Amino acid sequence: MKTQFDVAIVGGGLVGLATACALSQYNITVAIVDAKVNEHQNFAYDEIGIRASAINGASQQYFSQIGIWNDLCASERVHAFSEIGVWEKNGLAHLGAHAKDYGYPNLGYIIENNLISHYLYQHAQANPNIAIFNLAAIDNNCTQDDAFLTLADNTRLQAKLIIGADGAHSWLRRHEKISLLERNYLHHAVITTVETQYPHQACARQIFYPNGIVAFLPLWQANKSCLVWSTKPEQAAILTSLTESDFCQELFKLTGDKVGQCQLVNPRMVFPLKARFAKQFVKHRLALIGDAAHTIHPLAGQGVNLGFQDSALLVATIRKLIEEQKDIGLLENLKSFQFTRRKDALVMLTAMRTIQDMFNGNNALKKMVRTVGMNAIDKFSPLKKQLIKYAMQI
């Protein structure tokens, strides 16, 4: 098999696969390296994925550019949501928005993660410019002119640039000794799929309460939603140890007036939540994107969109450098990408920290500030429209 490429990508998840597919359109040769990438080959159409993402307008356009959007829509599992509703449990803070009020067809799309990765994998597998290595990377080193990646079977790949898209616990980031700024959110996310008594009516709902946040992402079936319940670690442990009926009863106490009784469709999964920000997104012949570069709280559903924005800008940067006959792996040529993406990630990290801190606990002053603030935004249409446009990236 060929071992010399323009770009080698460590990580075959959503962002890594999308980057490979986008690069390949410009006759750029790409290697994808991931020991678990072949798991995306098959998709169980008779099951609902546990994890789903709120895909914004920019990510949807990126999927169209790559060439998978029509396939996703043809699956009939892409659900456009037209409304958002945010409430404070036992409080007066409220924020709502409907797409029609702003002349938009929708506010985004809820899509199962494994569906997106499945179609990206199929697209990559069929592309002659992409080689897939179902192996772990075990070493890498760079010379002035090239980067080299050694795989678990001792295959040695050569590229002009190595991209790290291998997630929050990135092997490549650690191997390159790139340090992180970290902040523990003191929350764990309990994620599952639920069937709700009331139809979701294409509304993404979020309920804040003193110990956490409960979010419902409306799926393609009228009474099915992806549940993301962020709460304190000890509470998350209790929630996952409860019987299904007791878990649903605890959920009903917080959200019953919004969605009615719930039943579990999938097992519960738990993920610790931590903010991460790599001190460097680029080095000589190296670029980090997606969760390898930054992670944020899932409360606004923007984590995966940030990753796709990293991917799109890096692809555009590489394409421009090649057109200008410049070296795609030189640090100097990647600095503009780093500056833009670090800035956008910092804005989102700061926003998530501010929102979580504001809703954490039951302090009377905080409660008054968030009630006044959220209700003011809810009533001030121009500001709300700008916030929605920013979230949708349109």
Task: Describe it.
Belongs to the UbiH/COQ6 family. This protein has a domain of 215 residues: FAD/NAD(P)-binding domain. 38% of the residues lie in helices and 29% in strands. It contains eleven helices and 21 strands. Helix 1 packs parallel to helix 4, helix 1 runs parallel beside helix 8 and helix 8 packs antiparallel against helix 9. The longest helix has 29 residues. The chain is globular. The mean pLDDT is 90.
Beta-strand proportion: 25-35%
Rg result: 21 Å
The CATH superfamily of the domain at 7-72 and 113-181 and 274-353 bears the name FAD/NAD(P)-binding domain
Low-confidence stretches: none
Q: Percent helix among the residues? A: 25-40%
Quaternary state reads: single chain
Distance between the termini: 42 Å
Q: What composes the largest sheet? A: 9 strands, mixed
CATH topology (level 3) name of the domain at 7-72 and 113-181 and 274-353: FAD/NAD(P)-binding domain
CATH architect. name of the domain at 7-72 and 113-181 and 274-353: 3-Layer(bba) Sandwich
* Tally of strands: 21
Mean pLDDT: 90
| Secondary-structure class | alpha+beta
Q: CATH class of the domain at 7-72 and 113-181 and 274-353, please?
A: Alpha Beta
- Shape summary: globular
| Total of helices | 11
Family: Belongs to the UbiH/COQ6 family.
Organism: Gilliamella apicola
Protein name: FAD-dependent 2-octaprenylphenol hydroxylase
Domain FAD-binding: 5-332
